[in-house]
Amino acid sequence: MRVLQVGKFYPPDHGGVETATRQAAEALTRLGLPNEVLCFAGQGPYDDAAGPVPVSRAPVLATVSSQPLSAAYVRRVLALAPRFDVLHVHCPNILAALALCLARPRARIVLHWHSDIIGKKSLLALARPLETWLCRRADLVIGPTAVHLAASDRAADFAGKGAVVPFCVDGTMAGPHKADPAGVAAIAARFGGRRIIFALGRLVAYKGFDRLVAAAALLPEEAVVVIGGSGPLAGVLGRRIEAAGLGGRVILAGRIPDADLSDWFAACDIFCLPSTERAEMFGIVQLEAMAFGKPVVSTAIPGSGVSAVNRDGRTGLVVPPGDATALGRALARLVADPALCRQLGEGGRAAVAGPYSRAAVTEAFGAAYARLDSGASGRL
User: Which of 176, 199, 244, 284 keeps 20 to 30 A from 256, CA to CA?
Assistant: First the structure.
């Protein structure tokens, strides 16, 4: 069974879907299923010869509402589709849906449902007929959590075809074994031994960092909030921090190099994912924090799998999205209770060693793909 993964971008390009595509490639390879990746070309540079699978990158002509446009991509889908037994499509990707609709492949189609199209009305109107065809044509639909499938706007179109295959923490991501004791000590010394609340992500509206800044005003002096990442809202957040008089208590650390991330996860006491919108569907960064035994404070976004990953009272605390007061109280509770932090942190470690382990994810992929051979389908 030969598999072509049809995605958007692929590492070293950054992003949750990119990481998930690589994890799928590695899991399928471990299962003995030869697979390749077709994606768009980003900034590069690339050394795809060193990767686990062959990668073909199509040049992008333009990008509209986060959707890359590329005639070369469509041509390659049309050329490659007949050569594979399974086309594993990472969604949403309207150009891939268009290309497959044109190709009308005989291969089995697997949809990896990362998210619905969120908040882009013009793109959604264009995409709806293509997505409807693709969902009904699909033989299997994989969701990283059950919520991805059950709460999708497309749930009726792929009913009975769903399988849950979560993400995992892999060797390319931050991990305790990568932390440098000297680097960890330097971070702790930089903040004078205060309790560090760490957040990480692109500085865009749906990440909710403005709510985290507001929540910081409710925290005791012994706590400091550090937000790692860059993005268009850096200036706005900086001004908000200064206006609130939180200059020494909320730090915008900028983009943190990958090589330093393990030190930051090891040095922090609490991890926070304050996202407010359904554009945040999983939050794989939560798993990285959990691998370090850090309690997570996240939000219960309706229709999102974020709080299915961070289980309230088991791996962290979960609060309503956009509620700065609730967020501040949850963080303050953990700052004041190191024993609770340790308890929740151990719950996170157990989750990463269990259902979110590489072995468990590979097994889940195997069980899902076995249904293609058997022709069986299951209802969630």
Answer: 244
Angle between helices 284-291 and 16-30 (to 10 degrees): 70
Instruction: Express each pLDDT in 36-64 by its tens digit.
Output: 999 999 988 999 988 889 999 999 999 88
Q: How far apart are the C-alpha atoms of 121 and 138, rounded to whole Å?
A: 24
Tell whether 277 and 294 lie within a shared domain: yes
Judgement on whether residues 327 and 348 belong to the same structural domain of the protein: yes
Q: 141 and 237 share a domain?
A: no
* Mean pLDDT to the nearest integer, 228-241: 97
d(CA 299, CA 303): 12
Q: Whose CA is closest to 159, among 149, 168, 169, 173?
A: 149
User: Is the separation of the CB atoms in 299 and 272 below 8 Å?
Assistant: no
- Give me the domain span that covers residue 222: 176-353
Q: Which of 163, 253, 160 is nearest to 209 (CA)?
A: 253
CB contact burial 139-150 (16+ within 10 A = b; e otherwise): bbbbbbbebbbe
Q: Let me know whether 114 and 220 are in one domain.
A: no
The reply to whether 158 and 187 lie within a common domain is no
Q: pTM, whole model, 2 decimals?
A: 0.92
Split at pLDDT 50, 70, 90, the class of 121 is low
Main-chain phi, psi angles of 237, to 5 degrees: -65, -40
